[in-house]
Design a protein that fits this description.
Blueprint: E1 2-3, H1 19-24, E2 39-42, E3 45-47, H2 51-57, E4 71-74, E5 81-86, E6 92-95, H3 103-108, E7 122-127, E8 133-138, H4 140-144, E9 158-161, H5 169-182, H6 189-199
Parallel strand pairs: 1-4, 5-9
Antiparallel strand pairs: 2-3, 2-4, 5-6, 7-8, 7-9
Helix pairs in contact: 5-6
């Protein structure tokens, strides 16, 4: 058990146990635990299991059997960051300050390329849990003109600023896939499973 467990460490399995029983060995978790990013790691790969749904909604379909060598990791919600890619000179992580970070602030913190950009169709990939996420298209021009409310970003969000008008989500994903692979070790599990595995 790794991360924000009250009793983390190595536990030996003397009988078959499921994921919920394994989590119970940790004697609960700290208030700073980020359950939406909790993950089960097997053979150095993230298993597509939704620990957040298991713990908050009791979804027993996520209560898989554990195998020797499995690791359950619950990160904390401190030092969170978003990732900005696309029409920027150097894409990568942008820290979220204690007061929060909205889309306009995140884009203002990176240096845009001189070749142009399209603020009308900014793509955002948001992880809701290890297996669930949502895809959004946001018109930042409307936000900047005061015609729409600012969009608050969440830890792990991936923001893509198109260099021009892109046709589909697949076009956007294909363009940012190399950048996602560079930062794969610190991306949210949903992104690792959904895009990096499918892209291989």
């Amino acid at each position: 058990l790794l991360g924000q467990f009250r009793n983390s460490g190595t536990f030996y399995m003397d009988r078959p146990i499921n994921l919920l029983q394994g989590i119970a060995l940790g004697n609960g978790y700290d208030p700073t635990a980020d359950l939406s990013a909790a993950r089960l790691i097997r053979d150095k790969k993230v298993v597509p299991v939704d620990i957040y749904t298991l713990l908050t909604k009791g979804d027993q379909s996520q209560n898989v059997w554990l195998k020797p060598g499995d690791a359950i990791y619950i990160p904390d919600n401190k030092n969170q960051q978003v990732f900005v890619f696309g029409a920027v000179k150097k894409g990568g992580p942008v820290p979220i300050p204690a007061a929060g970070l909205n889309l306009a602030q995140a884009i203002a913190s990176v240096e845009l390329r001189d070749i142009g950009h399209d603020f009308r169709y900014i793509r955002i990939i948001r992880s809701l849990s290890t297996t669930r996420g949502e895809l959004m298209v946001v018109d930042l021009d409307k936000i900047l003109r005061g015609e729409a409310l600012p969009l608050a970003l969440k830890g792990g969000d991936i923001v893509y600023i198109p260099k021009g008008s892109l046709g589909t989500w697949n076009d956007a994903i294909n363009e940012i896939l190399p950048s996602l692979q560079i930062f794969s070790t610190i991306l949210q599990p949903f992104v690792q499973i959904k895009y990096l595995k499918e892209g291989n």
